[in-house]
Amino acid sequence: MAGKVLTITSGKGGVGKSTTSANLALGLALKGKKVVAIDLDIGLRNLDMILGLENRIVYDVVNIVEKTCKLNQALIKDKRTENLYLIAAAQTRDKSAVTSNQIKELTEELKKDYDFVILDSPAGIEGGFKNAMEPADEVIIVTTPEISAVRDADRVIGILEANDKKEMSLIINRIDPTLVKKGDMMSKDDVLQVLSIPLIGVVPEDKNIVSYTNLGEPSILHKDSKSGQAYKNIVQRLLGKDVEFMEITEEKKGFLKNIVSLFKD
Amino acid sequence: MDSVAIKGKNFLGFEIEINTDNIKNLKQELDVVLSSSAHFMKNSIITLRFKESNKQIANEAIKYIKEKDIIPNAIVVDSKEGLNTDIPVIELKNIHLLSDKQEQQAATYKGNLRNGQEIRVNGDLIITGNVNPNSYIYATGNIFVLGKLYGIPHAGYGGDNSCVIFAFDLNPPQIRIGDYITRSPEEGVNPKQQSSSVFEVAYIESGSIVISSYDDWIKLKN
Questions:
Q1: Domains in chain B and their CATH numbers?
Q2: B109 in contact with A at a CB cutoff of 8 Å?
Q3: Nearest-CA distance from A157 to chain B in Å?
Q4: DSSP state string for A20-81
Q5: B7 pLDDT exceeds 60?
Q6: Cβ within 8 Å, pair B115-A190
Q7: Is B208 helix (H, G, I), strand (E, B) or coil?
Q8: Closest alpha carbon to B175 in B140, B194, B150
Q9: Rg of the Cα atoms in chain A
Q10: Which residue of A has its CA nearest to B193?
Q11: What is the ipTM of this complex?
Q12: What is the Cα–Cα distance from A118 to B26, expressed in whole angstroms?
């Protein structure tokens, strides 16, 4: 099997890299693909929590590259699907504990057995970012419709273009249709005009993400979640299917709801 | 009276430009000029600029300036041929970005220039694509951006104030042309309101950078 290494990055922190990594990894696994997700945010690990696998960690990615454990021992099996494994980041070390060559070696090894190797990159453009970029076959850039996030994404795209990583796509996260309509938030098109790389998904703002993260259940598991639906569409597109972009609109209040809200206020 | 001029240089401290081949005139004028400025020149880097026509008086000029307690760090000339001195010589023909007019040519860049990237060229620069915020473009000649210009342009790099900057959407935080610099107004920073549909040109007119629509500018030039 010749798997694919998919790196999720953003430049700026807090735009939803790990949430996206968790949802895409789980989504691909639920579609029957063999997936391994690697958290490269060494020292500030999150992906295990978002996936709800925190208390199963025994060995981590640093243990693997330092060969204090076998690769199989550090693969944490997901509790919902047979197809998903996680390699957690070490919490007591920092980005310099691994080199990009070691990560490349590791992903080459994993590509033999898995369809997708998903690398959750740390924020920034320093060593940890380079470790995540070096082995990537495809890079997904996550941004929010804020000028600071878009600027940082632009910087990252520039670096990747200079290093001939042409296979890039964009996810715009946390779009709030109400704010866009009022003109207070950049729209999808505004962002695309600046970044001009192919769009693979638009994820609406979802207040429930906080509680999903606390529960360790990514939104893709929740049927009625709008962000979950958006991630499902992205998974389909990653698998080569042509899915129409979801119309992101304001939640409409019905006549009855309007009356109820009158009394509530 | 124009045989000596002192100029502040970006990286070099001060440059004393010498425009005469008459050593007597030179000494007189140096006395005047240095009497008021010697105290702040003592601790900075000083270069002496000679022309091809007067570089033979270089050694005498250096000797005189040293007597005034100012130590020149280097001499700047077009070519050091026929110049015999113990001070380092900077040859302008060797400085890449300061080429002569006749060497100038246009360079083309296709694609978007992104945050953190920069381009430096001799001559004119033509970019087909957008120049995004936080990128920098430098040209010794004119700059033409067939796209949005949101980064920082410097046309006429090296001091050519006759250069212009053209863009489909000219909206940089700063504009630099030759020795001039200006920044955009800080009001109305909403990016949506800023973008205009008129092609614009920036150029220098009576000592300051002005921006006008391409249509107005072309009328002005003809």
A1: 4-94 (3.30.750), 101-221 (2.160.20.70)
A2: no
A3: 8
A4: HHHHHHHHHHHTT--EEEEE--TTS--HHHHTT-GGG-SS-HHHHHTTSS-HHHH-EEPSS-
A5: yes
A6: no
A7: strand
A8: B150
A9: 19
A10: A183
A11: 0.76
A12: 73
Q: Name chain B contacts of A148, Cβ cutoff 8 Å.
A: none
With both helix axes pointing from N to C terminus, report the angle between A226-238 and A17-30 in degrees, rounded to the nearest 10.
60
* Contact across the interface for A154 and B117, Cβ inside 8 Å: no
pLDDT tens column, A103-115 = 999 999 999 999 9
A194 Cβ under 8 Å from any chain B Cβ: yes
Q: Are the beta carbons of B115 and A158 separated by less than 8 Å? A: yes
Give the separation between CA A97 and CA B69, rounded to whole angstroms: 56
Encoded tokens for A261: 């809200």
Query: Whole-angstrom Cα distance, residue B75 to residue B91?
Result: 8
Q: What is the DSSP letter of A113?
A: T
pLDDT digits (tens, 9 = 90+) for B121-164: 999 999 999 999 999 999 999 999 999 999 999 999 999 999 99
Spatial separation of the C-alpha atoms in residues A214 and A118, rounded to whole Å = 22
Task: Kindly state the average pLDDT of the residues A30-57.
Answer: 95
Give the nearest chain B residue to A190 (CA atoms).
B192
- Per-residue pLDDT band for A215 (boundaries 50, 70, 90) equals very high
Among B104, B58, B47, B48, smallest CA distance to B81 is for B58
Based on the number of CB atoms within 10 Å of its own CB, is B185 exposed (0-12), middle (13-18) or buried (19 or more)?
Answer: exposed
Which domains are assigned to chain A? 4-264 (3.40.50.300)
Q: What's the whole-model pTM score?
A: 0.71
Those residues whose C-beta lies under 8 Å from the C-beta of residue B185, and which sit 6 or more positions away, are: none
At B48-94, the pLDDT tens digits run 888 888 888 888 888 888 887 788 888 888 877 777 777 888 777 66
Q: Using an 8 Å Cβ cutoff, are B142 and B121 in contact?
A: no
DSSP annotation of B152 reads E
Helix (H) or strand (E) segment spanning residue A264: helix A255-264
For chain A, how far is it from start to end, CA to CA, in angstroms? Answer: 59
Q: What is the largest CA-CA distance in chain A?
A: 65
Q: Which amino acid is at A156?
A: V
A147–B112 CB contact, under 8 Å:
no
| The pLDDT of residue A235 is above 60 | yes
Taking CA atoms, B172 is separated from A186, A220, B132, B134, B184, in Å, by 19, 42, 9, 9, 7
What confidence tens digit (pLDDT) does each residue in B153-203 have?
Answer: 999 999 999 999 999 999 999 999 999 999 887 765 554 445 567 899 999
Helix and strand tally (H, E) in chain A?
Answer: 12, 8
